[in-house]
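User: Hello! My lab partner asked me to get a predicted holo structure for this protein. The small molecule is glutathione, SMILES included with the sequence. Please write out the structure tokens.
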Amino acid sequence: MTSTRDTSLQSDIGKMKLEPDGSFNRLPSSFRNWIQKDGQFTAERDRYHLYVSLACPWATRTLITRKLKGLEDIIPVTVVSPHMGEFGWPFASVDPFPGANPDPLYNAQHIRDLYLKVNPHYDAKFTVPVLWDKKLHTIVNNESSEIIRIFNTAFNDLIPPDKASIDIYPEQHRKEIDAINEWVYDTVNNGVYKAGFAGAQEPYEKAVYAIFESLDRLEKMLTGKDYLVGDTLTEADIRLFVTIVRFDPVYVGHFKCNLRTIRNGYPALHTWLRKLYWNNDAFRSSTDFEHIKVHYYWSQTKVNPTRIVAVGPTPDIEPL
Ligand SMILES: N[C@@H](CCC(=O)N[C@@H](CS)C(=O)NCC(=O)O)C(=O)O
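Assistant: Hello! Below are the structure tokens for the protein in complex with glutathione.
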């Protein structure tokens, strides 16, 4: 089912285009459907499938939430190889890698094939995560911030009450969560990419200073606290975690975000990170440092043309 259409401008990160001033601009996701009662996509067991990369911070948000909500049996998951190359993300059938899988549904070779199956003229990026509908053979949603909200509530009737009652976006904290998400997305989650992909000194420096200003702000917010909002785990923690856990292993070196490290520069963030990782299996089991490091250093050849994978830091994450 491999397409013969030349999609290299969409799939090959080596051909990525920057803005005229050398800055990186992330484009919006294309599939934005919701799973809900009386809609086209209703909550059902064994209807949906999740495609992820363990390297990708956006995909990891969905893995953490899937596990927290106990959706493992309801929504099976397939992991791609971390070698995102010319055709984008490959499955293990064409690029075997420990922890990666073949596509169990269509034996696709790349994530690209799934997008082109839905729409042969699809002209945007072939990104993960992908929430797939096995009944209609289509993509429900490929925007992680929405997939985690779908997982938070849509399947509550199908899971045990203790899982259904977990709410990572509680009504009374929504305003505060939305406000944090906005600046954390811009200056931290996407900020590291703006620094790393910058093609000129000025946008790079602008992004790096903004990242560390936000880390300073987060450090104050987390001093003496286990969670960002109130005293419960919310999506604000999940969305921040996926970037902070990659920070010392990848973003400090590969993306040149090196004013400070988390482990030596931010004691409260460091404690918050390690508590989530070591005390909550949803976080630890969704984090794979091998996939993370190999992906960034190998795939992003504009940033690292030799594809040499940095050996440090050791350990990837410190004990509590
Ligand atoms: N806004 C999307 C972003 C997803 C995204 O950019 N994923 C990256 C991996 S970390 C990807 O698949 N990139 C493929 C490409 O750029 O060709 C989300 O949050 O789901």
